[in-house]
Structures are given as C-alpha cells and as structure tokens.
Amino acid sequence: MEATTYKLNVEEIRKDFPILHRQVNGKPLIYFDNGATSQKPRQVIDVINRYYQHENSNIHRGIHTLSQEATDAYEKARKTIQQFINAQHHHEVIFTSGTTGSVNLVASSFGKKHIQAGDEIIISTMEHHSNIVPWQMLCEEKKAILKVIPINDKGELLMEEFKRLLSPKTKLVTVTHVSNTLGTINPVKEIIKLAKAAGAFVLIDGAQAVPHTKVDVQELDCDFYAFSGHKMFGPTGVGILYGKEAILNELPPYQGGGDMIKTVTFEKTTYNELPHKFEAGTPNIVGGLGLAAAIDYMNKIGITNIEAYEHELLNYATEKIKKIEGVRIIGEAANKASVLSFLVDGIHPSDIGMIIDKLGIAIRTGHHCTEPLMNRFDIPGTARASFAFYNTKEEIDTFILALERALKMLL
Amino acid sequence: MNSIKEIQQEIIEEFALFDEWMDKYEHIIELGKDLPLIDEQYKTDENLIKGCQSKVWLHAELKDGKIIFSADSDAIITKGIVGLVIRVFSNHTPQEIIDANLFFIDQIGLQEHLSPTRSNGLLSMLKQIRMYAIAFNTQAKA
Q: Are residues A146 and A269 in the same domain?
C-alpha cells in the first residue's frame, strides 16, 4: 500500500470525544467498533443539547419565530450535506432514518415505477442485509429476478462476471461502496459507468464510505446514494438518500402523511415538491442538525487527512496482527478502508470478543449482517476491528497484546 | 442426587474461589474444553439453537421419568456455560425443572451472557429446556 501523508493532531481530536475518556470493565475504553457506529464529538452533542434546550419547534409549518428558526436551521443542514457530497441541488438530499430507510425508500418508490415481472436487479455478494432483503422483497412482489456479483478470495468483486450479468433486462444495480465486513473499497465509478451503459439505474450504499473518504455524487454519476448519520460521527436515527432531481421527480412518494403534500381533499391529494415529497411527517430535526454538525467537524479535520491517517492505522494493525500465529485476515482487497476482519484457527470469534471486552476493548464479532458473504467464505463470522480517526497506534498495540492474552487462554 | 437448588449452590461455591474475571473465564474455558457434551448424531439442525454470535445444540430425552440433556456450542465460553446449565438441569423430572428457579448465573456474575444482545443462544437454550420439561410433563400426564 502506498505511503500517505496527513495533518492531524489525534491528541487534540480525542479531547473532543467525551466517551473516549471513560473506562470499561476497569480499563480505558478502546473503541474499535466504528463500523457499527462511530462516537460523537462534543460539537455534535452540544448542537443536540442546545436544540432541545433553546430551539425545539416543529418545522415547515409554524408562523412563530421558533418554528422559523428551526426550519432555517434544518434547511441549512440540508445544504451542508449537499455541499459535503457535492450534490447539484439541495432538494436532491432527502432526509431519512438511515441507510436502511434510504434503501427501502428506493426499493418502494423506484420499484413501483420501474420494476416489472422478469426485470433484473443486480447486487453483490458483499452486501449488508439491508441492501439484500429490500430487493428480495421487491423481487418477490414483482416477480423480478435478483442477480449477485461474485467475489474472489481476497474479497474483490469479479468485474468480468458483473459485465456478464448486465443485460437489457437489468433495471437497477445496487452495490456497497465500502464493505462493512471486508473493508473492500469497490470500484463504484466503473460499476456506475458500466451499469449506465447497459441502461440501468444505480444505487450506491455509502454507509461505510462517507465517514472515511471523499464522496462526490456528481463525479460518480450515480442515480442514488445512501448513507447514515451515526456512522459519520452524527446522531442515530438520521440518514440521507441522495437522488438525481429528474429521477426523484418521476418517482411516486414513499410514505404518506404531513409535509409531503400540497393539498389534501378526500377526492384527490397533490404531492409536495422535492425534497418534501419523500419526507412525510415530522422528521428527526435534531438528527439533521447533528449530522450537519458532524460534517462541519469532519470538514475541519479534512476528509483527506482522515482517509490518510486511517489508512496508516489499518496498515499498522494489519502488519501487527499478521505476526500472530494462526491469524487469518478475511478481506485482503488491494483497495481497503479501515476495517480489519480476522479469524484465528480453532477459535470462535465471539470468544475473542468476550475476553478482550473484559480488557476494555470493543470490537465486533459475528456475521456483521452479511450472512451470504460469510457463507461465501464458509465461515460462521469474523472478529472485526474497525478504526476511526480518533484511534491511535498505541491503542492498536494494546489491542494486539489483549488479543495475544485471549488466545493464550483459549488455545 | 442433589436437587436443582443444591447443584446451583455447589457451582456458586466453586466460583467463589475466583476473585478475578480472568480466573472465572479460565475456569469456564476449561469446562468448555473438557466436556464432550453431545453425541455427534444429535448435532442436527433440529437441535440447533442459532444465536447471532454462536450456535448451541440441545438434545433431550426422557429416561426413567427424568430428562437427560446434552448440549454443545461452537464457542468455548458459551460451551462452558452451557455445561454448567446442563449440570444443573439434567437428570431431573420435568416437574422439578418447571418449578426450578435459575439463580446461579446471576450469582457467579455471568448474567451478561443471558442478555438478548449477546445473542449467543444461551437465553434461547434456557427457554428450550423449559419447553422440553413442559412437553415431557404433558406427555407423561396424557
């Protein structure tokens, strides 16, 4: 892997994350479960606090000052997100409950409009359940066909196989940008180009990508891009669906309710314009504000610094863990984000997770909501350490020592 | 034969020797390693209790009015705890199992392993043990 440079003061950054200073089981917390959810900086927590203490009000409907302020703040948050992913219009940014909510929105609205019996939807072997099950449900309902891009043993998509799967029947290609289990960074730009050439629409699951790397939806030229707030240092319960204006305008609404309508009579209801057409009911207002605060925080550090530093952490951890006898890394793609999945010969990953938890270290064990991927590797699950920019090499050293201690007990 | 309550008290006394979680876990791991808990023929999908993290197999049969449980797990810590649970419940009548109160896991400080978020199949296994007891009891009465 290439050498990278960054400008980032991890000691200063750690001061912003209150939770990193607590103890777990009598030991200083080492949080390596960032792939599941990230921790929140004070700057995000403060926004949430301030909102409920000083600003709370419903948006888009009040005539009073508070409501106007809350509406302005929420719409400003949308613009912050728009700029972050470089969407052309702010109304192409739809607030949802998270990546899962975003994928389900597309499955429902896009499915109604575009999917018919015999149509094909292409996903990949390394998808999270949330980018598998909604499509299975849609295919079942519409009698459409789900096709799966296979991978090699390193955990890379077989692009030649993908090309073979594409046909005039392909209506949608939906793949993850970064695998939550393997860390593989998929060549999404190429995938999008190939899919478009075949006349298909493309949705990218960016839940694991947006926290770690620069995403430019116009440069990618994807039709939809989904991600979550809580994996990028923002609150839980908020996420984004980016969609191209022209495509979103053509789609029927997802859920019905307040805010998504223009006029309602018992005979006929007309729907609101973008983005409100897809945002029924009172949204997670504070979630949106918190997400924007998280983006401001990431921008302050600089996404290229984040990426370079995390890359260095991953390389450091990979080199160290490889020296332990019996360790097998699951996911050795040439292009990887800061996810280190591994197995140790003869040991169940959950035993490792339980013991190092007692040493204050939080990792994830299990199938990581990617059961088909586990079946592909013929393994029950993995132990997974996933790093964020507030982690340190010293923490990795402690983790390696804890892992060695656990293995001594278990073998 | 000791009662379910007495066996649990025995286990609590055994674990009272350990001050540190590390020693406790080492003991559980040893229990897990030592116990060939289940006959391979019973390691079937029917007997499988699938947790998100680890798998537990549980087999039950009625012998002379008592239920004999055997079990296994693919994770060693879970297997050790499963072994303790089997030691408590196996070789008792269905009615004794139905009436039993499980307290040793709490007392030896392993209650976190029964949390639903651990998803290790243990909680489901305990439910399954009770279901077997109820089923055998109903069978006996019929």
A: yes
Q: Please name which of A155, A171, A159, A168 lies closest in space to residue A122, comparing C-alpha atoms.
A: A171
Alpha carbons A64 and A104: distance in angstroms, whole number: 35
**Residue A298 near residue A214, CB atoms below 8 Å:** no
| Tens digits of residue pLDDT in A295-330 | 999 999 999 999 999 999 999 999 999 999 999 999
Q: Are residues A26 and A96 in the same domain?
A: no
Determine which of A370, A410, A411 to mutate to test the interface with B (most B C-beta atoms within 10 Å): A410
Domain-ending residue, one of A275, A299, A323:
A299
User: With 70 as the cut, is the pLDDT of residue B36 above it?
Assistant: no
Q: How far apart are CA A68 and CA A76, in angstroms?
A: 12
Distances (CA, A) of B109 to A217, A218, A400, B31, B114: 51, 54, 27, 17, 11
**Is residue A215 located within the same domain as residue A247?**
yes
Distance CA A241, CA A124 (A): 20
Q: Which 8-state DSSP code applies to residue B51? A: -
For residue A343, the enclosing domain spans 10-31+302-410
Q: Is the Cβ pair B53, A381 closer than 8 Å? A: yes
How many Cβ pairs closer than 8 A exist between chain A and B? 41
Residue A177 lies in a domain: yes
Q: Is the pLDDT of residue A2 over 60?
A: no
Domain boundary among A254, A279, A299: A299
Chain A residue closest to B50 (CA)? A380
Number of domains composing chain A: 2
Q: Which of A397-411, B42-56, B67-81 has the highest mean pLDDT?
A: A397-411
The answer on A78 and A16 residing in a single domain is: no
Domain ranges of chain B: 4-141
Shared-domain flag, residues A201 and A347: no
For position A392, which CATH number holds? 3.90.1150.10
CB A291 within 8 A of CB A229: yes
What is the distance in angstroms between the Cα of B59 and the nearest Cα belonging to chain A? 22
Q: In this model, does residue A1 exceed pLDDT 60?
A: no
CA angle B24, A359, A350 (to 5 degrees): 75
Question: Which of A351, A369, A378 has the highest number of chain B CBs within 10 A, making it the mutation to test binding with B?
Answer: A351
Architecture of the domain whose range is B4-141: Alpha-Beta Complex (3.90)
Among A81-90, A257-266, A372-381, A401-410, which stretch is predicted with the lowest mean pLDDT?
A257-266
Catalytic residue selected from B13, B14, B26, B52: B52
Same domain, A347 and A293: no
Q: Which of A9-13, A221-225, A277-281, B76-80 has the lowest mean pLDDT?
A: B76-80
Task: Return the beta strands (E) in A21-169 as ranges.
Answer: 23-24, 27-28, 30-31, 93-96, 120-124, 145-149
- According to DSSP, the β-strands at A382-386 and A339-344 are antiparallel
